[in-house]
Amino acid sequence: MNILILGSGIVGANLANKLSEQGKSVFLLDDDASELKRLSERYDIKTIFEDPLNPTFYSNFKTKIDYFIAVTKSDEKNIITCKFAKEFLKVDKTIARIRNQNLISDENKSLLIDSNSFLDHIISPEWEVANNIFEKIHMPGAFFSEFML
Q1: How many domains does the chain have?
Q2: Residue 9 phi/psi, 5° resolution?
Q3: In the chain, beta strands by DSSP E
Q4: What is the reported pTM?
Q5: What CATH number is given to the structural domain containing 29?
Q6: How many other CB atoms are there within 10 angstroms of residue 122's CB atom?
Q7: Which pLDDT tens digit goes with each residue over 47-90?
Q8: Is residue 54 part of a domain?
Q9: How far apart are alpha carbons 28 and 106 in whole angstroms?
């Protein structure tokens, strides 16, 4: 499985490392050459130094990509690059990190996904952290739970 991750920050780097440890072929795309160099020396990943907002990059990329995951700090960059990945790379699934809570509120989330077929999944680290804390408060002493029949 080939996975292209946009963003070499903490989220992108950790995700790339975990996926490569699972035997996935991981490409890490960013326009920060020094960070890409550091990560390529540390992890078993392929790094790509390129402007992620350049559509020509996607149209010239020759490797079949199964998943495109955009996890930069810019919601707009994450959204538009998912469009490029779907249109030019013909990826099976796209995942965009969205930090703006207005975009992913219950009333707006379906509008964002339904009106943009190139967005398969949206993740929000802030929302995930809040849910995790809520679960720990809701079930004190429990670190995980399972549904039993």
Answers
A1: 1
A2: -75, -165
A3: 2-6, 25-30, 46-49, 67-70, 93-97, 121-123
A4: 0.83
A5: 3.40.50.720
A6: 21
A7: 999 999 999 999 999 999 999 999 999 999 999 999 999 999 99
A8: yes
A9: 31
